[in-house]
Amino acid sequence: MTTAEVGRARLRKEDAHLITGRSRYTDNITLPGMLHLAMVRSPFAHAKITSVDVAAAKSSPGVVAVLTGADVAAEQGSLPNAWPITPEQKAPAHPAIAVDEVAFAGEVVACIIARSAAAARDAVELVDVNYEELPVVLDLEEAAKDQVLAHPGLGTNKSATWVFDSGDAGTGKPIREALEGAEVLIERTFYQQRLIPSFMEPRSTVVDPTGEQITVWSATQIPHILRLMLALTLAIPESKVRVIAPDVGGGFGGKLQVTPEEAITVLAARHTGRPCKYTETRSESLMAAHHGRAQVQRLKLSATKEGIVTGLDVNLLADMGAYLGLVASGIPILGAFMYNSIYKFPAYRFECTNLFTNKAWTDAYRGAGRPEATFAIERMMDELAAELGLDPLQVRERNWIKHEEFPFTTVAGLEYDSGNYEAATAKALELFGYDALRAEQVRRRETNDPVQLGIGISTFTEMCGLAPSRVLGALNYAAGGWEHAQVRVLPTGNIEVVTGSSSHGQGHETAWSQLVADKLGVPFENVEVLHGDTQISQRGLDTYGSRSLTVGGMAVLAAADKVIEKAKVVAAHLMEASEDDIEFADGKFSVKGTDQSTALGEIALATFSAHNLPDGFEPNLDSDATFDPQNFSFPHGTHLAAIEVDTETGRVSIRKYVCVDDVGVVVNPLIVEGQVHGGLAQGIAQALYEEAVYDDAGTLVTGSFVDYLVPGAPDLPHYTTARTETPSTTNQLGAKGVGEAGTIASTPAIVNGVLDAVRHLGVKDIRMPCSPSRVWAALEEAKMTGGVR
Amino acid sequence: MASSTMITIEVDNVSYTDDVEPRLLLVQYLRERLGKTGTLIGCDTTNCGACTVHLDGVSVKSCTMFAVQADGHRVTTIEGLARDGKLAPMQRAFHECHALQCGFCTPGMIMQSASLLDENPHPSEQEIRDGLEGNLCRCTGYQNIVAAVQAVAEGTVSSDSDETETAGVA
Ligand code: FES
Ligand code: FES
User: Fold this and answer.
1) B44-B50-B55-B59 Cα dihedral, nearest 10 degrees
2) What is the per-residue pLDDT across A703-728, written as a single tens digit (0 to 9) for each?
3) In chain A, what's the furthest Cα-to-Cα distance?
4) Nearest to residue A307, comparing CAs of A396, A373, A405?
5) A569: helix, strand or coil
6) Where are the alpha helices (DSSP H) in A20-116?
7) Judging by DSSP bridges, how do beta strands B74-76 and B5-11 pair with one another?
8) Which of residues 523-552 of A touch B (CB under 8 A)?
9) Distance between CA A633 and CA A275 in Å, rounded?
10) Which tens digit of pLDDT belongs to each residue from A569-585?
11) From the CA of B107, which ligand is nearest?
């Protein structure tokens, strides 16, 4: 091979049909005789359902049937939670269609099935539901008091409490000592506002019940898990359910779910015996698809006067919303291991309480637990710096794990395999022009410039490659963390790769082709990647948590390795040599010390024709591999933001954003860069724009894109991105994962920058999103309470 | 509700005459009646731009118009942008600049970007960003979309036949 594919900025294979409008999103699918669904949703956040009258709807033109909770209760078990974090975990039953009580505004109470989408929507108005309103609990801190219950039948709002303590089990001794004897003690409470993942493709499901199997097309990140869960909750054998995730228009964790709407579409198809489609509107998506974040974080951090951290105590309230989603209960726990971030300190305690409220359910959103944790520790490091009058960079340098200290076991018990925080930081500082910006900041302060400058820093690591199965087992997660792949060398020498990890925009087809092209010495163009259909890719654990390359990609490499081993046996046989003398390089098997060689394609043809194979050799050159990672991988980076705050209007603008990410070995720099950009946009959006807001009655106020501010092109800056490369030592490629990096690091970088701009004016904290009105109010309050000026 | 109107629309160079309900949106007509599913629906409040098409050469959000309003007009969708089997420069630029990930915003973005350059062939970065204000993308963070528009404006997109490999990669 002359050119290595790994590391090459290959343009994507998957673009061709997307740029020409030949896309295969679920809503594009039309089947003969297909019926359309529309949902009747509760306008109340909490109410008893006293009656549901569907007579008028049933006789509306075009309507074929109407389903209520009572109609489907017997067929559909509770929607699943796969992560009972404690044996005592409490959860209300979650029917696909509410039966006698609704627990959030937007919950489905009936489903119209009609011959056209318009007819279905028309009939929604005709369903007459009588509700008896119940008191609502919306605020997390209120929910913790258990005075108003989201589910009266449960007797409490607490789902589970989970504790990690680095000290003697049970005594809590080290953390108490660290905090009691501390020279410096910082206490803060941070609010992680509710966010809505807001994938651009609304959720959509098409179900065809007319074959031997039920075929389900869904805009999902998790075709394999969805198949299993539909089978379990509907009591159908898995082999009778085929799930296809065709083109999927983004997920960000928001499509890592088994939704009521998917289950209802299956039920509707079963009841009518005809293909059924449901595509949500954006308003329905904002109201009823799962939300993310939604935590209150109470932290205590102890340190010496030199700024050396000695302990951290984290107490967390996590909003589950009205029901437990598929992995919702485990999200805070994923964060638990990241509060110590890149820092070494001796004592750490983490406690979270998962609570129910009468709001939409929550679950994974890009980063899932890790952005929340990183935000909190990075804010605390800045608070510590401010308290001690140190540069925030200095505080970080004094506490981080040094390059020569890897591998390093953290206070939370993870082993970080490799990292070089010094190199990433040095590169970022240089690109940013740190010293010049600090000097400008001083000038602006001295001249009382109405526009003040702040510098926001965030250094971070994250835990990618979810996950070693035994670790997930230890945390009570119901499934494993492996991934499956198959590599097939076809008689022509072309390669088919089947992967359990299917993409919703991440570019697997291109990246996997690069991996296999290098490994097997074939042209990139000759590799075809198949995914997203449980009939084709029969095993898999799907795409989330930046696990695609580090787990799914490694499975592909492992399968390719097995193909090479198999082919060697045939090569030795054909060339009448000993297997030990066969070498494989650049797509050719050769006999050591001779000029005899045979290409992979020739062996593929020989194994296909099977005329002359070693005794007992199974014809065909295919291999399967299931890869279970030994450890997580830990990408890291340093992000710097120069923030301008107009002190007269509260307007925040990002003047410069520089990030240096270290994601280990990079397969496709183009894709990595794109992932970083998209991640940054979502992290910045949390810092400045987005929040799901409910009114006192529990109605979502931000119920459309008019109010829920997904940033557009003018709202975001130009990013300067760069990389350092510290290979992971725990997988054969040295890759680390990148999907969530930008999101995790950028939120604290921006908020630290905003505060850095106005801290000298007496502002101590601003809740996210740092909208002009919030920033302005904080400045006014600082003035009133005798801020610095 | 049931009353219907006869309309004639030219879509991607083909003329269609159809009976439509007055309430039928242009985007529904394109997707459901003509099978032009390249034009996508991302919202119900005219905020996302996934449904952007050209009406007589000017970009419009097809979820904001009734099909009857397009009567007698010429519509171009993403399917009609490539001509004679050759991708339009903006389509190539999106590919070469990695300006798409999941691809859902992409048809609308390409249509809007193309019409933005028709109005202002040499926009500044800020003018490009402002011109894309009505189109949301959740995947790319916009930087590569801006780069794609710049590449077309500057004429640095490859011709349809010679696909280059990298564009603006660090
Ligand atoms: S679908 Fe037309 S603007 Fe969103
Ligand atoms: S590429 Fe996914 S929304 Fe733009």
Assistant:
1) 110
2) 999 999 999 999 999 999 999 999 99
3) 91
4) A396
5) helix
6) 55-58, 69-72
7) parallel
8) none
9) 43
10) 999 999 999 999 999 99
11) 2
